[in-house]
Design brief:
The chain has five helices and no strands. It is mostly helical and 105 residues long. It has one domain: Butyryl-CoA Dehydrogenase, subunit A, domain 3, CATH 1.20.140. The protein is elongated and about 50 Å long. The termini are far apart. Bound molecules: flavin-adenine dinucleotide. Flavin-adenine dinucleotide binds next to helix 5.
Length: 105
């Protein structure tokens, strides 16, 4: 079960990294990056929540104790879905991009 969680975490981190690189590359090409950047912010902050939640699970009770850095990481991760545009607002931006026409995804 721990290996499955580690595989999920690694996959989400890899997917996030690829999204960041692709959005950065498209921005460098002069393409309108707004919808893609919102996808990246939305996906990465939600993925962060899932990844750090699994990390707490792996550590068990110790993951919940303030003696361990993972407890702080878990708390800090939550705010990424709020600041710099909430997940809801970024989904609005993505939907707006979709309504303008097909996105190159
Ligand atoms: C630790 C921290 C650091 C921050 N740093 C900065 C900073 O450096 N610079 C800066 O400018 N701001 C900063 N902020 C502010 C941050 O960007 C805002 O908190 C964030 O944009 C959400 O705005 P709000 O708190 O007013 O929530 P609200 O806008 O009141 O939103 C409340 C809820 O309603 C939802 N909601 C609101 N409007 C819509 C809509 N149209 N459709 C669907 N759902 C909606 C939101 O998603 C959220 O769930 C920071 C916030 C925190 C917590």
């Amino acid at each position: 079960m721990v290996q499955a969680m580690l595989a999920d975490m690694a996959t989400e981190i890899y997917a996030t990294r690829m999204m960041v690189l692709n959005a950065a590359w498209e921005t460098d090409q002069g393409l309108d990056p707004r919808a893609k950047v919102s996808m990246v912010k939305y996906y990465s902050s939600e993925a962060l929540g899932r990844v750090v939640d699994k990390a707490v699970q792996i550590f068990g009770g110790m993951g919940y104790c303030s003696d361990m850095p993972i407890e702080r990481l878990y708390r800090d991760a939550r705010v990424y879905r709020i600041f710099d545009g909430t997940s809801d607002i970024h989904r609005v931006v993505v939907a707006r991009g979709l309504l303008k026409g097909p996105l190159d995804i």
